[in-house]
Amino acid sequence: SWLFLSAAFLSVGAEISITPEPAQPAEGDNITLTVHGLLGELLAYSWYAGPTLSLNYLVASYIVSTGDETPGPAHTGREAVRPDGSLDIHGVLPRHSGTYILQTLNRQLQTEVGYGHLQVYEILAQPVVMANDTALVERRDTLRLTCSSPSPAEVRWFFNGEALPIAIRLGQSADGRVLTRQVLTRHGVRREEAGAYQCEVWNPVSVSRSEPINLTV
Length: 217
What we know:
Layout: E1 17-21, E2 31-36, E3 42-49, E4 58-63, E5 69-71, E6 79-81, E7 87-89, E8 98-106, E9 111-118, E10 128-131, E11 143-149, E12 153-159, E13 162-170, E14 180-186, E15 195-203, E16 206-209, E17 213-215
Antiparallel strand pairs: 1-2, 2-7, 3-4, 3-8, 4-5, 6-7, 8-9, 10-11, 11-14, 12-13, 12-15, 15-16, 15-17
């Protein structure tokens, strides 16, 4: 049972490190939280997906001698503990992102704790560019373009296929249901600013560019 780690054992100095493989996983990847620095003969492992050793965050416990694994409240059906203490997550999702803690128990009933962080990146959908007007009057009207994406990402703007020197991170509403937006504004638009505008969203594993919107001045 995973309850063996709920008691207050003496904790020894932390030597454990945890690294995700691959380092920048995309949603749907099979990943491993690889453990380094385990010392001595260990009785058991417990994995937590959260900032503390709360039982609410317990993913699974593993008994080394028998290979028995017991899922905890935070198990999503995708995790499996390896005999060496590493944690496999199959078909990882963005919701798997966050802090992970491994707690070990040795024969002296001492515990040791290691921490790691997992960031899972979404495969980005195509963004959409909207304009306040597509037929503008030179030096009078203001050009306002809005780039919308359903996911947090970096954004770049393009004019007639050439990148503009603008790079701003897209945010997300608190409830996660409002499209993220980034606005490009030009006051007193000039004739040479007529043309095709696009925005491109990207993260370390994915990039997607909008369809062009054509403006006349």
